[in-house]
Amino acid sequence: MDINFFRICTTVLSFLCFIGILIWVFQPKLKNSFNESANYPFLED
After folding, report:
1. Where are the beta strands (DSSP E) in 1-45?
2. Positions of the chain with pLDDT lower than 70, given as ranges
3. What is d(CA 18, CA 10) in angstroms, rounded to the nearest whole number?
4. How does the average pLDDT of the chain come out, rounded?
């Protein structure tokens, strides 16, 4: 094993994490939760 193997593994794992985050963010059932969180700073006391 050389350094290129570790670079490839790091790149593949980073890409899989990125795809996982995209899938998590664009789930329709989480839209209300994200909208509520986005509007939180604008709520008055």
Report:
1. none
2. 45
3. 12
4. 93
d(CA 35, CA 24): 15
Q: Measure the CA angle with vertex 22, ends 9 and 31; round to 5°.
A: 155
| 29 CB-contact burial (10 Å; exposed 0-12 / middle 13-18 / buried 19+) | exposed
Task: Locate 11 and state its tokens.
Answer: 């790149």
Q: Helices H, strands E: what count in the chain?
A: 2, 0
Nearest to 17 by CA among 6, 25, 5: 25
User: Among all chains, which residue has been given the structure tokens 């969180």?
Assistant: 37
Q: How far apart are CA 7 and CA 30, in angstroms?
A: 34
